[in-house]
Structure formats: structure tokens, C-alpha cells
Amino acid sequence: xxxxxxxxxxxxxxxxxxxxxxxxxxxxxxxxxxxxxxxxxxxxxxxxxxxxxxxxxxxxxxxxxxxxxxxxxxxxxxxxxxxxxxxxxxxxxxx
Length: 95
Known about the structure:
Layout: E1 15-17, H1 20-28, H2 38-51, E2 57-59, H3 60-72, H4 79-94
Antiparallel strand pairs: 1-2
């Protein structure tokens, strides 16, 4: 993280429940993100599911940090795909 903070700091730490089936079928796998391979979709979904609390809740900030790590640390997704996934998650959290 830089001296000026992480770009994810702007996102809320309020948590929302995300069901496994909904994440897999609608938010990640079902989304039209042409740059993501099936394996990359599974990697993103798995990372989010593993980071949820025991009650199935997670914050948008935590999701942003997960996507940041997948992009910059493990190089599993591209920046454009990270932004598209984050936009989908922002919409979900605003509903």
C-alpha cells in the first residue's frame, strides 16, 4: 500500500450478504466480462467466497482489496476486468 492509501479506501466497510449461488450464477460467472476466462472467473469467485464472514457477508472495500491482490500480486486478472467486476459489485451493493 502506498503512503497515500489504497484506492479501495473510498469503498464502504458496510457488509452485505452474498450467496454462493448468486455470486457464481449472476455476479461473476453470469456477468458479461469477455476478458475473463472460465478459470479466472472461478478464481475471482473463490477468492470472494473465502473472504466472506461466517454469516456470508463481505464489504465492498474487502472485495476491492481482493480484486487488487488478484491484479497486482498474483496477476490473475487484468485491470479492465478488475474494473468491470468492481462496477458489478458496486451496483449489487447499492441495491
